[in-house]
Amino acid sequence: MADVAWLIPLLPFVAFAINGVFGRKYLKKHTGLVANAGVLGALVVSVALFITQLDHAEPQSVTLWTWAVSGDFALDIALRVDALTLVMLLVVTSVSFMVHVYSIGYMDHDPGFWRFFTYLPLFVFAMIMLVMANNLLVLFVFWEAVGLCSYLLIGFWFERQSASAAAIKAFLTNRIGDVGFLIGLLLAWYVFGTLDYDEIFAQAPAIAAATPGMLTVICLLLFVGAMGKSAQFPLHVWLPDAMEGPTPVSALIHAATMVTAGVYMVARFNPLYVLTPNAMVVVAIVGAFTALFAATIGLAQNDIKRVLAYSTVSQLGLMFMALGVGAFAAAIFHLATHAFFKGLLFLGSGSVIHGTNEEQDMQRMGGLFGKMPVTGSTYIIGGLALSGIIPLAGFWSKDELLGATLLAGGMGYLLYALGALASFLTAVYTFRMIFLTFFGKTRMETERFSHVHESPHVMTLPLIVLAVGAALAGFVGVPPEHGLIHNYLHDTFIAAELAGLVHKPSTTFVLGVMAVSTLIALFGILIAYSVYMRGLPAPEAVAGRVRPLHTLLVNKYFLDDFYDTVLAGGTRGVGWLFAWFDLNIVDGLVNLIGLVVSGVGGGLRRMQTGRLENYAFSVVLGTALVLAFYIIMVR
Amino acid sequence: MIIPALEYYLVLGAALFIIGLLGVLVRRNLLIVFMSIELILLGANVTFVGFAVALDNMLGQAFVIFSLTVAAAEAAVGLAIIVALSRHRDTLNVDEINTLKG
Hints:
The complex is a heterodimer.
Chain A: H1 7-27, H2 31-52, E1 60-70, E2 73-81, H3 83-106, H4 113-132, H5 136-154, H6 161-192, H7 197-210, H8 212-229, H9 238-241, H10 247-256, H11 261-268, H12 270-273, H13 277-299, H14 304-324, H15 328-355, H16 373-387, H17 393-408, H18 412-438, H19 446-450, H20 457-472, H21 484-489, H22 494-498, H23 507-534, H24 539-545, H25 547-554, H26 559-605, H27 612-634
Helix pairs in contact in A: 1-2, 1-4, 2-3, 2-4, 3-4, 3-10, 3-15, 3-20, 4-5, 5-6, 6-8, 7-8, 8-11, 8-13, 10-15, 13-14, 13-18, 14-15, 14-17, 14-18, 15-16, 15-17, 15-20, 16-18, 16-20, 17-18, 17-23, 18-23
Chain B: H1 6-26, H2 30-55, H3 59-89
Helix pairs in contact in B: 1-2, 2-3
């Protein structure tokens, strides 16, 4: 059955090729159908493949062809099929398909319709190849390819200055991470002599024993790449700006799939990471800090999509925190549930924006629930799942990764505190967003409010499907630590267990963590209700009480300004300096050489008078000099 | 008969040569330039004579007769050209006689 694995990436690619070649002139609106068919095909094959491997997913690799051979080193283009890949494939293809369906409605009036449905399957193809890659180089190639698709789609409405700037910002920020990734890749090749996953994993213990520092460096460099792609502090700045792209893109690329590539990558290299505790600590701390950091910013944003963007950064931070304490299965579990409920929330926000005629500022919404019941109720389900309310998907996964930090002991208690605080803030900002958008008295002009309408079925249907996913996806992880997904991924993450990073919690412990998490989430929702529905205390009063903090949060800790003035400004300054050096010193030298030559030439030209007597004189002079020389020397 | 030392011959020859040379370089009139060339030849001839006396070798004297003959022939041809030229161009200024110059 793994023989047909090549169909999974091929079908979206074919859809991309067809739409790219024929879309503009011939297919036009039909590009939507072509793209949907391609992605649906990939989904069907993935599900079929999953079913055949349901009991036991033995890692297999299907070699398509050999790309390059150099001495002992051979580079195969191979597709890997194992438990982790299959889980990722299911998540990617199912969310992709929902987003594709939704986009037919959302992009309906857009003149770039065919272009949109060319880029989107291309992204799906690249993302599928990323998770199916069987060696680091192929992973890197498609790592860059999804980055390219992200760039193209953020800048989809490139006629808007802000969109093209956001696209460039995303690309450049990712480039910083990718440099780390690339150096890590080259080091891995240098140390292991191969880029194939299985061969690297097989050699890892020996290398760890011989040169532990080298392995740590490799893991950290790969993690730098993950920080860029998965928007971890301090490389998170591109993700909120990426919301300039069309909302389905935000849902698919910047919430559900591409940004989780970093999490996937670290999880994939779990046999390496468990051998370097130092790298693990860095991963955990960066993740936990980002989770809290982004959650605080999310509290003070007014753009509905930006709140979700910071929420995504925060949730990705939680996943990295779990990876850092060795709870790989919990991280992948949260990745999967997050894909559903965050995809749902983004598509829901898109539906709101669509229904309110391009309004994104939550301060100018309110009371939309009556007008958009389907969007509203699915949105609330997504919000509850994000906040971690039992029994929705987010509860099970978030609870498990919080519990894993506690079990890790030592630094784990600090991580748990950060994570729990982030979860509390998550509940607050999520319900702040829900209350501001859907409830209370509307703050829209009466004229505009009367035009608010529910989105068409092609958009609400994916919302309902994803809401079901957001509600039920958590049950694959029930009971905690022994759910379907844990058993399925058990062999993939066996290294963590062998390294003693997996702790079997007691039932009391699990129930205790659950109770605390639930209380935290409920308390957060209560506060949001009190402040934003009842005005006790009024939001303005709260903001006034902590004015400096509020200013800090509204301005995102001034980090963007810092980057803009110090990093971008510094780069511009250095560029200016180099330009000056080039114009004056380098060009100056060249000009000087030219001047000297032309000056000497001008001087010498005067000797070529064309007057015979001058020439005769120089002949005489020369003869006299030769004679004088001869006389003096011979004497 | 008192025979002057070789140095006198050589200094006289060199003086004639330099005078002729400067005349060729400095003067513009073709006739004067022509005369200066004759002076250069004479300077060479005086040197010949001087060495012939000093070395007591008559070959130098004979060579001077030869070169004087050639100089006379050359003077005849050159003067004829100059006469023709002055008739044709109404000038003997070498700066103006430049028709063949590229």
